[in-house]
């Protein structure tokens, strides 16, 4: 039945309506139609609780045999005629419908919403013709949207029964509401419902549920909320379907607590909740996540005889993993299997991630292999998690293997996967492989600014400014817009290279690009200025940061304190620390106090270091191994070995792990004291503890024996060091060369020096000082002078001690002219002579002066 344009404005006048009401036939200009045909009865829709019946398609018109209605074809049929005839058939719905259809086809009929509303009330009166009413409304709702508004239709449906003495059935309002939903006119359905409520009529719960369900599906959550609360305000509690729909709506908007409240209140009111309602509630609970409550709800489901779905099990297992409850997650996995379900990829992936987060990387890999054996193919998330954690655990080769598997299976990696693997390769300094992967990410169109930032961060942290600049230009050429992280990396690169001018230029570029420097930006610059030895500029940068209302972080405060301590301004650092704590709310950590203690120790003020230690303890912080190592080092330097040993035993009694560093501190202290017996005792204790001496420990021991002229013991330690695979460094060779030169074992000294050069070690000023001193003591002034010239070629400026050694050597040899020439050269270099220099120049003598004959008897040694 085609529906034309309906007009609410063509409503019949009240006077005519009263006439029709008194005499329905008075305005009927047509003969009565034949007797009505026998129709099959129709029933209302069965599954009104389900929104699945709601579609935008209109169901076929119920079959109704055509009947002829005789009359004059030339007569004009008025609205009053149609209404009068319909009212005369109010007890014969089939006949009324046939007449309405016949009247529709008559030329000149002015359609009226009144006639439709009268017919709807007549049709809904009997169950067998209700489906005809539904069809009529479906056609109307899906027709011309310029027709009567939903509110107008409701108004007419409300007024017709009173005007024409008809019985009003609430079903007609349910059908109207449902028709707007079926036609996809959800705004119309809401307007319709609001108008009904305004007239004191509320649709039945099943039809309201249909509206709520479609609103939630369409993302109109707020509209659904309004409908629900109007429903409650009118004394309608709703049912289990209502609760489920509203819970879903809450979950869509992330209102998990509200979803849980709907569930709890429904239980309290005794509203029937099924397995689906429990599953939705479990989903809300797991988002918190509250795995314990989720498991309790699962247990309730089982008590009620319901088997949780695979999705419900999966959700709870994931929640358990987020909280690190591996045991419960594995139990649920076994329970899931016992219910006849297969472990799916989501469960496997959740368990793999759980093992990784617990530090059980090998267990995660084992589960990954079992996943493959079970026939469950890993997805992109599975690979992404394992690649990320493989890199974090230092197993970059496994990460590359997994990445290769992804490519073979045509699983497209995410940018997160690329970045994880890229960072892993960079951490291993596998730059060639990293660049290859980076180019691949660009080719595949996956790389974004975060990918560029990974490589940029590596170059800048390594001080490779040229490489960083090239990458920056490439990023801009690809149309990738830098972020503040990008700019911060560049600023860091310049700071690491000591180029603070360009670092500040990068800061200006950052601001010109519309970014505002953040706490990281300023902290990088503050640290850069301190490392360059410019604390005043560092404090200016800190003040600028405060002016711009950027709150310093703990790292910022620690940078300031560390910088001052390294600049030998530890007392000022301590004052600043107290000020930051009292005025800025900075909470110093053990690391902060350790830094200040170390500063005082390096300045030789061990008493102040101990005072800081007491202050730290009073603040409620407990010392760590670094604290004790710093203090023991300071006590040893101040020759307070009794207190150092007392502190050592105190550390042992507290159960601290006595690491190599702590042993090394005492060993070095006793070595410098010349107490090699105590030093050896601690060296042996270190070995007994299962620790391996490092280069620092061996160097201390070798230096200690060298100072006692015990070259046999020193050389024995050197050979043991090589046998144990502990790398020698420049200090190791310099100490031994010095020892052999002082002992007059020139051949051994030469052999060690040659070995040092062969291993790629470049002599520093200390090494040259040892060589020149040794050569001068043996009267080999020409070779000593060559070493001085060699220093010039390598850009190493000699110090006053080296010049004093050469000047003394020439005095011993009687070469006064060369001695004074060296003095002038020293002045030309801007070096200030010390008392030893002037003593030699004035008296012409040096301690231990040898005779000319002894010098002539020396054997020439080339180094």
Strand coverage percent = under 5%
Percent helix range: 55-70%
> How far is the N terminus from the C terminus?
114 Å
Mean pLDDT over all positions: 84
Give me the Rg, rounded: 46 Å
Class derived from helix and strand content:
mainly alpha
In total, the number of strands is 0
Q: Which blocks of ≥5 consecutive residues have pLDDT under 50?
A: 1-58, 64-68, 848-863
Overall, the morphology is elongated
Regarding quaternary structure, what we see is: single chain
Largest sheet: none
Number of distinct helices: 46
Keywords:
863 residues; mainly alpha; PPR_rpt; PPR-containing_protein; TPR-like_helical_dom_sf; Pentatricopeptide repeat-containing protein; repeat
Explain the overall architecture:
With 863 residues, this protein is mostly helical. 67% of the residues lie in helices and 0% in strands. The protein is built from 46 helices and no strands. Helix 7 (171-182) runs parallel beside helix 9 (205-217). Residues 43-59 have a biased composition (Polar residues). This is Pentatricopeptide repeat-containing protein. Residues 26-63 are annotated as: Disordered. InterPro entries: PPR-containing_protein (IPR050667), PPR_rpt (IPR002885), TPR-like_helical_dom_sf (IPR011990). PPR repeats lie at residues 169-203, 239-273, 274-308, 309-343, 344-378, 379-413, 448-482, 483-517, 518-552, 553-588, 589-623, 624-658, 659-693, 694-728, 729-763, 764-798, 799-833.
Furnish the topology, listing elements before pairings.
Layout (H helix, E strand, L loop, with lengths): L13 H9 L56 H10 L4 H13 L7 H11 L6 H12 L8 H15 L6 H12 L3 H13 L6 H13 L3 H13 L6 H13 L3 H13 L6 H13 L3 H13 L6 H13 L3 H13 L6 H13 L3 H13 L6 H13 L3 H13 L6 H13 L3 H13 L5 H13 L3 H13 L6 H13 L3 H13 L6 H13 L3 H13 L6 H13 L3 H14 L6 H13 L3 H13 L6 H13 L3 H13 L6 H14 L2 H13 L6 H13 L3 H13 L6 H13 L3 H13 L6 H13 L3 H13 L6 H13 L3 H13 L6 H9 L8 H5 L7
């Amino acid at each position: 039945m085609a529906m034309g344009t309906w007009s609410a404005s063509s409503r019949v006048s009240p006077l005519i309506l009263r006439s029709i009401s008194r005499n329905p036939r008075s305005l009927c200009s047509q003969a009565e139609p034949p007797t009505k045909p026998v129709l099959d009865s129709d029933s209302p829709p069965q599954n009104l609780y389900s929104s699945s019946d709601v579609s935008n398609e209109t169901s076929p018109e119920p079959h109704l045999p055509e009947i002829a209605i005789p009359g004059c074809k030339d007569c004009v049929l008025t609205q009053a005629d149609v209404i009068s005839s319909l009212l005369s058939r109010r007890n014969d719905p089939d006949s009324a419908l046939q007449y309405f259809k016949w009247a529709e086809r008559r030329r000149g009929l002015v359609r009226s919403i009144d006639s439709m509303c009268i017919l709807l009330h007549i049709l809904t009166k009997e169950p067998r013709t209700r489906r005809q009413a539904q069809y009529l409304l479906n056609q109307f709702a899906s027709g011309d949207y310029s027709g009567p508004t939903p509110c107008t239709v409701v108004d007419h449906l409300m007024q017709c029964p009173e005007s024409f003495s008809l019985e009003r059935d609430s079903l007609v309002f349910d059908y109207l509401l449902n028709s707007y939903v079926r036609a996809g006119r959800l705004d119309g359905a809401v307007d319709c419902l609001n108008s009904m409520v305004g007239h004191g009529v509320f649709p039945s719960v099943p039809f309201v549920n249909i509206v709520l369900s479609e609103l939630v599906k369409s993302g109109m959550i707020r509209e659904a909320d309004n409908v629900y609360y109007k429903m409650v305000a009118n004394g309608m509690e709703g049912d289990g379907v209502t609760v489920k729909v509203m819970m879903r709506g809450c979950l869509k908007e992330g209102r998990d607590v509200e979803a849980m409240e709907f569930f709890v209140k429904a239980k309290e009111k005794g509203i029937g909740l099924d397995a689906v309602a429990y599953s939705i509630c479990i989903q809300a609970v797991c988002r918190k996540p509250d795995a314990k409550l989720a498991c309790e709800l699962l247990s309730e489901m089982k008590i009620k005889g319901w088997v949780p779905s695979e999705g419900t099990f999966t959700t709870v297992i994931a929640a358990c993993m987020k909280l690190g409850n591996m045991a419960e997650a594995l139990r649920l996995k076994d329970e899931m299997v016992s219910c006849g379900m297969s472990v799916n990829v989501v469960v496997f992936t959740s368990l793999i991630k759980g093992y990784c987060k617990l530090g059980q990387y090998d267990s995660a890999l084992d589960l990954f292999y079992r996943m493959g054996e079970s026939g469950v193919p890993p997805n992109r998330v599975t690979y992404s998690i394992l690649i990320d954690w493989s890199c974090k655990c230092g197993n970059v080769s496994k990460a590359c293997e997994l990445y290769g598997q992804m490519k073979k299976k045509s699983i497209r990696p995410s940018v997160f996967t690329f970045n994880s693997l890229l960072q892993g390769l960079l951490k291993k300094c596998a730059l060639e492989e990293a660049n290859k992967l980076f180019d691949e990410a660009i080719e595949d169109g996956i790389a974004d600014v975060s990918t560029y930032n990974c490589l940029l961060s590596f170059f800048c942290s390594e001080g490779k400014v040229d490489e960083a600049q090239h990458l920056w230009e490439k990023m801009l050429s690809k149309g990738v817009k830098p972020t503040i992280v990008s700019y911060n990396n560049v600023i860091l690169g310049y700071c690491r290279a000591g180029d603070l001018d360009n670092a500040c230029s990068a800061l200006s570029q950052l601001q010109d690009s519309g970014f505002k420097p953040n706490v990281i930006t300023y902290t990088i610059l503050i640290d850069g200025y301190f490392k360059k030895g410019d604390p005043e500029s560092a404090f200016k940068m800190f003040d600028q940061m405060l002016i711009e209302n950027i709150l310093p972080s703990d790292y910022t405060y620690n940078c300031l304190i560390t910088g001052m301590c390294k600049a030998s301004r530890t007392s000022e650092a301590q004052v600043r620390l107290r000020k930051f704590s009292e005025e800025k709310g900075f909470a110093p950590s053990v690391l902060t106090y350790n830094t200040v203690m170390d500063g005082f120790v390096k300045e030789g003020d061990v008493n102040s270091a101990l005072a800081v230690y007491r202050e730290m303890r009073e603040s409620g912080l407990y010392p760590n191994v670094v604290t004790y190592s710093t203090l023991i080092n300071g006590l040893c330097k101040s020759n307070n070995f009794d207190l150092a040993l007392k502190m050592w035993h105190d550390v042992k009694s507290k159960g601290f792990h006595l690491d190599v560093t702590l042993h090394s501190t005492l060993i070095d202290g006793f070595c410098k004291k010349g107490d090699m017996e105590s030093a050896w005792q601690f060296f042996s204790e270190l070995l007994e503890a299962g620790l391996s001496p490092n280069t620092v420990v061996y160097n201390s021991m070798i230096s200690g024996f060298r100072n006692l002229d015990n070259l046999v013991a020193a050389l024995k330690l050197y050979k043991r060091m090589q046998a144990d695979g502990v790398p020698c460094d420049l200090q190791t060779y310099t100490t031994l060369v010095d020892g052999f030169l002082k002992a007059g074992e020139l051949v051994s000294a030469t052999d060690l020096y040659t070995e040092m050069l062969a291993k790629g070690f470049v002599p520093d000023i200390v090494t040259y000082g040892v060589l020149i001193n040794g050569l001068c003591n043996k009267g080999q002034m020409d070779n000593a002078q060559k070493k001085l010239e060699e220093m010039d070629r390598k850009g190493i400026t000699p110090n006053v001690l080296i010049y004093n050694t050469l000047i003394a050597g020439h005095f011993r040899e009687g070469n006064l002219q060369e001695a004074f020439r060296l003095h002038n050269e020293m002045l030309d270099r801007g070096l200030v002579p010390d008392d030893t220099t002037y003593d030699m120049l004035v008296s012409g003598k040096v301690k231990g002066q040898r005779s000319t004959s002894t010098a002539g008897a020396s054997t020439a040694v080339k180094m």
